[in-house]
Design a protein that fits this description.
By secondary structure, the chain is of the alpha/beta class. It contains eight helices and 19 strands. The strands form five sheets. A seven-stranded mixed beta sheet has the order 15-14-13-16-17-19-18, sandwiched between helices. The longest helix is centred in the last third of the chain and has 14 residues.
């Protein structure tokens, strides 16, 4: 289908996509075109943005429409209340469904998704992520299942939806990390998982060393395979242990703390930091406490004899009504004498 399209370099994709979506200029019924380092976004009208101008391109229809249509027809979504409708998100060639009732009609819908929508597997969420190893509660309801690969912002990830958690909603944050404008020599990821944050850092910052820690041995298995798959040239050190027990042989320039309890892990991060290190914390906080979280972090750092300043605080995404997932970047100015 021919439509206006806006060519955007890959490194500016996330910001431009967000702008177009918020201003209702994006056509969500058409599929984004990838051409080398460029992404062509379908738009509803002529747009001049960031020295890029719209042209006419031949787009294909987005699979999102087909997926929604099948769910409406087969699972009765059109007749359900908004809070009870079956919702979905897609990662690579798998679809994960929410609000799944496991009726015969819904099973039929899942099988049709595999047959018609270029996916290999359909899963249903059956509960919440549990335990320190962050084990997902999902079950395969159609297709082959097992290990799969997907690409995001030029980085290839490996995972099995039934065995490891995947953070699909953090794309904007992963782009933020690769564009913060520093060149760290040594990076520590205290909660690496399958490499949500450490893989893009390794690929686009190219540090000399990257140290990844996680208690989930299965997640690290996929991380090791993804390191080879992405051709990472940094020296990679991977440890299957609790980060509270880790003492690095070097001080790290960048310390990633992709755990919602990262505030409580500050002592372990600080003992691996040096003057000039940056710590990136991920925190869940209600709206009314966003203003005070920076003060609490700096106060806690001071208690351990360090001095730091907040370089950046931003919302990553909504976690629940009036509760936010935020990212805080701390620059360490002074370590204990």
């Amino acid at each position: 289908m021919k439509s206006y399209g806006l060519p955007i370099p890959r490194d500016k994709f996330s910001a431009v996509y967000d702008y177009l979506f918020k201003n209702k200029l994006l056509r969500t019924d058409l599929k984004i075109i990838s051409r080398g380092n460029m992404r062509i976004l379908p738009v509803i009208q002529k747009v001049n943005l960031d020295q890029q101008t719209t042209e006419i391109f031949d787009f294909t229809t987005s699979l999102d429409n087909s997926i929604n249509r099948i769910l409406n027809e087969k699972s009765g979504n059109a007749n359900k209340e908004n809070g009870k409708k079956t919702r979905w998100y897609r990662i690579g060639k798998c679809i994960i469904l929410k609000n799944w009732s496991n009726t015969d009609d819904e099973k039929s819908a899942a099988n049709k998704l595999v047959k018609n929508c270029k996916v290999t597997s359909v899963y249903a969420e059956s509960g919440k992520i549990t335990g320190e190893k962050r084990k997902p509660s999902v079950q395969l309801i159609a297709g082959n299942g097992g290990e799969m690969q997907y690409m995001e912002n030029g980085v290839k990830y490996l995972f099995d939806p039934e065995k490891v958690m995947i953070s699909k909603g953090n794309l904007k944050e992963r782009n933020f990390l690769s564009g913060i404008g520093i060149k760290p020599d040594n990076v520590l990821d205290m909660f690496s998982g399958i490499g949500y944050f450490s893989l893009p850092v390794a690929k686009y910052m190219n540090p000399e060393t990257l140290t990844c820690i996680d208690v989930n041995e299965r997640a690290l298995y996929y991380l090791k395979k993804a390191v080879k798959l992405n051709g990472i040239t940094s020296k990679i050190y991977i440890y299957n242990e609790d980060c509270r027990c880790f003492h690095g042989k070097v001080r790290y320039d960048l310390i990633l703390m992709g755990n919602f309890k990262s505030y409580f892990y500050l002592p372990q991060a600080l003992r691996n930091a040096r003057e000039g290190s940056r710590l990136i914390l991920h925190i869940i906080t209600p709206t009314e406490k966003i203003v005070t979280i920076n003060y609490l972090i700096v106060e806690r750092i001071n208690k351990f004899g360090y001095r730091g300043t907040i370089e950046n605080t931003h919302k990553v995404k909504s976690f629940s009504p009036h509760v936010w997932h935020i990212s805080v970047t701390v620059l360490i100015l002074q370590t204990p004498l």
